[in-house]
Amino acid sequence: MTSILKTLTFLGVLIAATTMAQAEGYLATKPIKLPDLILGTDDAGYKVSQKEYNLKTGQSYRLKIKSTGAKEYALVSDGFFDFIWLRKVEAGDMEIKANSIYELEFEEESTAAIYFVPIKPGTYKLYARGLEHKGTFTTINVK
Q: What percent of the chain has pLDDT over 90?
């Protein structure tokens, strides 16, 4: 009797977990367009236009990142790029389809758009390497 109860409990937990993990619809269509992240909005070239983004797992997003060209920006993350499903990156006249992003480097005034779905809740920082202490970062909260 105890083994039957354990088996039924296990199956109930498994079904509940499977149901909670499912997302509805095709995740890559109709991404929510986030406010653009503009790098170098002040005279010194360190400030960013958005200090924070609030996202949900399982939702498709488009984030357009624009460099003013005031500095060179090597945009990296503290885990955010590791915990997204990357659909594509658009830069110039190119569409890049890759599994992940290590770094987005802006050497002059330019724009890149990333299309992605967050897959792990957490608080992440997206920052320009070496410039985060001067304010060149944004916080990404994923629920």
A: 72
